[in-house]
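To: structure subgroup
Subject: Chain for Friday's discussion

All,

I'm putting the inputs and outputs inline so they're searchable in the archive.
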Amino acid sequence: QVQLVESGGGLVQPGGSLGLSCAVSGSIMIIYTMDWYRQGPGKQRELVATINTGGSTNYADSVKGRFTISRDNAKNTVYLQMSSLKPEDTAVYYCHADLRVSLFSGRSDYWGQGTQVTVSS
């Protein structure tokens, strides 16, 4: 089975830094796009950052210049390095992958369970 597991969440002071990881396990042919979403208290889930197979990235305006998304294709892992954190960054962060499991299947979406990031003094 394909599984996405996030790690690295926790409590951090405003202005601090935190790194998140998401490891994809299972039988996978190729991961096309990996993304980080987040959902704050009482808010809709929003896209934070994306990265495709070639390494091209896109960021939400609210995190641009502060967050960096990267991936290690050999390890099937995506990372989100967060700096200059603000209280409004507090949310559950979810890893998402658009991938193909085999030559005989189409592209499918998979989600991690989420990891809590709390920015507070």
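Points worth raising on Friday:
Residues 87 and 119 are 5 Å apart (CA to CA).
DSSP finds no helices and eleven strands in the chain.

D.
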